[in-house]
Design goal:
The protein is mostly helical. A 5-stranded mixed sheet has the order 4-3-5-6-7, sandwiched between helices. It is elongated.
């Protein structure tokens, strides 16, 4: 396994480095409130948010290839953690943090295995449609969860619907000052982002809220505050959990692994295409593995390639991982010298910041575009979002992957099929492959839009037999347009040979057109060409139609 260092930094110029350092400091001013907020999602101490933007960021910058991707705390993976681990240990407890570290370590190991065996293609099994639905569901789930801290009502359930029920039944417990402060913070951020999207509005709000809390004693008025935040660097250590707990956290790590692969790859590819750059997916996976290993040993939670933070870095003017290194350096200074004021930050204000992040994750525009272009995929996206809210984040992502694969298999099982017919002006045009469809008297040209394999071979045979049986005129030639067929397996080949024998008994010549070299090799290996004859395999449709029409003309002359 070769390792390429600084792929996301080189080449770099002095002027470019200065520009990226300024962008990294700007990114830190916008992003530090976010990484603090993500700890509310992950149910971990607030300082762990800063830890995610320290050593993990440095290691990805060293080993990754993407010049834009920001790897740090992320809401999706944080939600996966909290949705599962809160059932195993009390949030913020030592046992909970050990489980959090174990998930990060297991995720790092899974990513390393993916790099060694080049399993990056697994990211493609979480489609963009499902990703939109998943992140929308996570947005709703996080937003509902933050209502507890915003109102001062501590939820006892981790399920979104039950949390809404709790809030409704305990409305008398709502702490009005906390709610008003939370609404003020959320309103300023939402309006500020609309008016001045490039300014670090969240940072201004955090600084202002901390100053007001210290000056007016918010804690004395019943507004809960974070309290003392440890200063200095994290102490490296390995998480200590039992074998039983380690096995219990493995499914959580697997969910994080899939989410990290899919989201990081999609984000890195999207921004690389925008900047006309190339990325090395294997190098990025190695960088993500190292970043999560660093998260595990520095006492924080899993890190991920964040689309929102990457977009913020781009807006700040970042052009390489130098910006992310500057971001981490700024976080280092905060940890060493500026953690003291954080103790005055109200929980409701931090929850309000996260609530605004959750609103941004609800991709209404994306869902609308999907609905306009593909109603079936829209249902898949909405179903994924609903599953996340109703049954949980971890189960939702596993269901999303299953639904994506099921949709793909269903498409392969029932591919698009058509018959080439002659329209009113004498041109060939595809029509639905239904009973009675025919290209011309004696000839049917049939297109099958997928590879032939054991699951769809019977569908193929049924179509062929149905078209031959119900043709307006007796069929003498049946030409299969195999342009979309790149592979045929053993079971489908046996079924095809049986079909050939059946059609030959009926006096129907079967021919395959637009056969590619790879498919021709499969057909020869499975004995299909021997059953059909070399003269019935054609590289182009033009050749197949020329031979078929000549044969039909000769048969017409004989009769």
């Amino acid at each position: 396994m070769s390792i390429k260092l600084l792929g996301g930094i080189r080449p770099i110029t002095g002027k470019g480095a200065i520009r990226d350092i300024v962008a990294g400091i700007t990114l830190a001013s916008m992003n530090i409130p976010q990484v603090l907020g993500y700890t509310r999602i992950a149910m971990t101490p607030v300082v762990t948010g800063l830890y995610t933007a320290l050593l993990p960021v440095f290691l990805f910058a060293l080993l990754g290839s993407s010049r834009q991707l920001v790897v740090a705390a992320d809401s999706a993976t944080a939600a996966i953690l909290a949705g599962s681990l809160t059932h195993m240990a009390p949030p913020h407890s030592a046992q909970y943090m050990s489980l959090v570290g174990m998930v990060a370590l297991q995720t790092a190991a899974l990513l390393l295995v993916a790099r060694i065996f080049r399993l990056g293609f697994l990211a493609d099994f979480l489609s963009r449609t499902v990703l939109v639905g998943f992140l929308t569901g996570v947005g709703f789930q996080i937003g509902i969860a933050m209502l507890g801290s915003m109102t001062g009502v501590e939820f006892t359930s981790s399920r979104s619907l039950l949390q809404l029920g709790e809030l409704a039944s305990r409305h008398a417990d709502i702490h009005i000052p906390s709610l008003m402060l939370a609404l003020l913070v959320a309103g300023i951020i939402l309006v500020g982002h609309r008016i001045a999207p490039r300014l670090p509005i969240a940072l201004f709000v955090v600084v202002g809220t901390i100053a007001a809390s210290a000056a007016f004693g918010f804690a004395a008025h019943g507004i809960s505050v974070i309290g003392m935040v440890p200063e200095g660097l994290p102490s490296p250590s390995l998480p200590e959990v039992s074998w039983r707990d380690g096995l219990a956290t493995l499914p959580v790590a697997l969910s994080c692994f899939v989410m990290i692969l899919a989201q990081s790859a999609a984000t890195a590819r999207g921004f690389a295409q925008r900047h006309h750059e190339l990325t090395d997916q294997d190098a990025d996976i190695l960088g993500l593995s190292a970043a999560n290993a660093a998260a595990a040993v520095t006492g924080t939670f899993v890190v991920n390639g964040s689309p929102s933070q990457t977009a913020m870095a781009e807006q700040a003017g970042a052009s390489s991982q130098v910006a992310q290194v500057a971001f981490a350096g700024t976080v280092l200074l905060v940890l060493l010298f500026f953690t003291g004021p954080l103790q005055y930050l109200p929980h409701c204000a931090l929850a309000a910041i996260v609530f605004t992040i959750a609103i941004g994750m609800v991709d209404v525009a994306g869902l609308r575009r999907i609905g306009a272009e593909s109603p079936g995929e829209f249902k898949l996206a909405v179903g994924t979002a609903t599953a996340v809210v109703v049954i949980g984040v971890e189960q939702g992502i596993l269901l999303a992957i299953g639904l994506s694969l099921l949709r793909h298999v269903r498409h392969s099982y029932r591919p698009n099929t058509s018959v080439l017919a002659i329209d009113g002006v004498g041109h060939h045009a595809p029509i639905p492959a239904v009973a009675g469809a025919q290209t011309q008297p004696g000839l049917i040209v049939y297109e099958f839009g997928a590879d032939l394999f054991y699951a769809n071979a019977n569908r193929f045979v049924e179509d062929v037999r149905n078209l031959v049986a119900h043709a307006p005129a007796p069929t003498r030639w049946f030409v299969v347009d195999a342009g979309a067929v790149t592979d045929i397996d053993y079971s489908a080949a046996q079924t095809l040979r049986d079909l050939i024998a059946d059609l030959q008994q009926q006096g129907v010549d079967l021919a395959l057109a637009r056969v590619r070299p790879g498919l021709r090799a499969d057909l020869a290996r499975h004995g299909v060409i021997a059953a059909l004859g070399q003269d019935r395999i054609f590289g182009t449709m033009h050749e197949a139609l020329a031979v078929a029409n000549m044969a039909l003309a000769e048969q017409a002359q004989k009769t």
